[in-house]
Specification:
alpha/beta, Arc Repressor Mutant, subunit A, Rossmann fold, nine-stranded mixed β-sheet, three-stranded antiparallel β-sheet, 14 strands, 13% strand, DNA methylase adenine-specific domain-containing protein
């Protein structure tokens, strides 16, 4: 581990409250700016203590924010070759101890390190074991002895919890983690997680909820109060989810808490075989090729023996969630829109529609959840009940309300829940189905969907808007386009003007030269390059044109 936390140029800019370009200028203009301590030539890192000292000497930093100091301490604990989320498990267990036993703050301030080195890990294991079970301490990887870095982190967290509740402090650290690791799977926003939980039914302490791909546990957190179980292939994320759920429980609630999150790949190694939950909520991994297709050919989770194709990992997760849903229970999944229409998944979709398991497909606007540029779909499924012959699917299109900055989340939630609850009430009681909403929603008979494609994209099956509504729709589209153009104009005005310089244009290198030097590999797809065109006749001003010489065909080998 590094002797001192290291920070990037972007993090230095965050500390000083400036843009990243200002840090680059400081490095060029000030010879006493700290030298890089690690990283790469294009993305160097600097020792935090040296950077902090330099910023303070320049009058650019009064005091390092406490949250930033905690984060840098976590970076000190992180193993460069290990997962970035691992230190968050340590921080979460310390916050859970502070949440359940506030007197630990006093001990951290008064007791010497020699005593705390063994006393703090014992207290952690005792608290975690009482709340989460005897195996939780080992699953979280809690240390047997606390080193100086762990003790410094514990004292910083004690100061942080004096400003905000432990659960809120942990959420701040998770937000900081998501900002520092944008390439990893980003968490679902709280509003979207709450929508998924609401579609699964009213919460209650007597309900059971499962998320087989829980990530950091945002959807399970939204399903409270309930007995919640989760699983994730990443042990670190599973530990974070478990600690988030424990921190959300009241400090005076006795253990063990009704939460259980385990590590493992739910498709290949299901941690909860035989569990039939009241609600299954899931945002599964997208576009996985290696999900276990070859090993799971004869799995009992595939209805009618219809195995999801190798390229349809999302449908494998749909069937897994349905297998864990009790009869009459609800499964809600957040999926990419292509799952509704890819030809390879037609047989699985048709089986879900034919059996009555699929009850609704809702097209959400782009921006409700990562990836934010894609209008994701919500699938709602019902655990099959013997004798239930209801065969309709609610198709609701809210994708036109897109734009991450323009979404009225409260109105979207109300619209989706109202449409689903009216449809679900009709399905449960045998009452009349809700009326069609042109351009918005419709209850479609299953037979209308069972064609050669079984395309479940809502927009393909909705009645068109009446002629009198077309001008209003066109006006709305024009207003949205005008708003986008105005926003782009504002962004263009904010860009700095480029000053004309007399510098020569940078040298250019052709693709052929890059390929010859080995800096570029050229790969051809398909059946190979097309045949070269026939050479043109060779001519000259003083000679008669002659066709190019023809090569003789290779001799035919003699027949034995």
């Amino acid at each position: 581990m590094p002797e001192s936390p290291e920070v990037t140029a972007a993090e230095i800019a965050r500390l000083a409250g400036v843009g990243r370009a200002a840090v680059s200028n400081w490095r060029r203009r000030h010879t006493d700016f700290p030298r890089p301590a690690g990283g790469t030539e294009t993305s160097p890192t600097f020792r935090l203590d040296q950077v902090e000292q330099w910023l303070r000497a320049q009058g650019k930093l009064a005091e390092l924010p406490l949250l930033e100091r905690v984060w840098q301490q976590l970076e000190t604990l992180r193993d460069p070759s290990g997962p970035a989320v691992a230190p968050l498990v340590t921080a979460g267990s310390l916050l859970l101890l502070l949440h359940r036993d506030p007197s630990v703050r006093t001990e951290l301030a008064e007791q010497p390190d020699t005593r705390l080195a063994t006393a703090l890990p014992k207290a952690l294991r005792r608290t975690v074991g009482a709340l989460l079970g005897p195996d939780a301490a080992a699953a979280l990887g809690l240390p047997l002895i606390a080193g100086a870095t762990h003790l410094d982190l514990a004292r910083l967290l004690a100061r942080l919890t004096a400003e905000s509740a432990p659960a809120a402090a942990y959420e701040q650290l998770l937000t900081r983690y998501a900002e520092a690791n944008p390439r990893l799977q980003q968490p679902i926003p709280a509003e979207t997680a709450a929508l998924l939980a609401a579609l699964a039914g009213a919460p209650g302490e007597d309900r059971t909820v499962l998320d087989p791909a829980c990530g950091t546990g945002g959807v399970l957190l939204a399903a409270a109060p309930a007995a919640r179980s989760g699983q994730d292939a990443d042990p670190g994320l599973a530990g974070v989810a478990l600690l988030r759920l424990a921190l959300a429980a009241p400090a005076d609630r006795p253990g063990p808490l009704p939460v259980d999150v385990r590590a493992g790949d739910a498709l290949r190694a299901d941690a909860f075989p035989g569990l039939a939950a009241d609600a299954v909520l899931c945002r599964p991994p997208y576009n996985e090729r290696d999900w276990g297709h070859d090993q799971l050919q004869y799995d009992s989770r595939w209805p009618g023996g219809v195995v999801p194709p190798r390229g349809e990992s999302e449908l494998a997760w749909v069937l897994h969630c349905l297998a864990h849903t009790r009869p009459g229970g609800t499964a809600v999944l957040l999926l990419p829109p292509t799952v509704a229409s890819r030809r390879a998944g037609r047989r699985v979709r048709a089986e879900l529609v034919r059996s009555g398991a699929l009850r609704a497909v809702v097209a959400l606007p782009a921006g409700v959840a990562p990836p934010y540029g894609v209008p994701l779909h919500v699938w709602v499924l019902r655990g099959p009940v013997p004798g239930d012959d209801f065969r309709h699917v609610l198709l609701l299109d809210a994708a036109a309300d897109g734009g991450r900055e323009r979404i009225d989340r409260a109105a979207l939630r109300q619209d989706v829940l109202t449409a689903w609850q009216a449809f679900d009430e009709a399905a449960r009681t045998g009452g009349p189905l809700p009326a069609d909403r042109p351009g918005r929603g419709r209850a479609v008979p299953a037979l209308d969907l069972l064609d050669d494609e079984t395309d479940l994209t809502p927009a393909r099956h909705l009645p068109a808007l009446p002629a009198e509504a077309a001008p209003d729709a066109l006006t709305g589209l024009r207003d949205r386009l005008a708003a986008e153009l105005a926003r782009l104009a504002d962004l263009d005005a904010a860009l700095p003007a480029l000053a004309a310089t007399g510098a020569a244009a940078p040298p250019q290198v052709g693709i052929g030269e890059l390929a010859r030097s080995g800096a570029l590999e050229v790969h051809s797809s398909g059946q190979g390059a097309p045949p070269a065109p026939a050479a043109a006749p060779r001519c000259s001003p003083t000679r008669t044109c002659r066709p190019p010489p023809r090569r003789a065909p290779p001799p035919t080998p003699p027949t034995p």
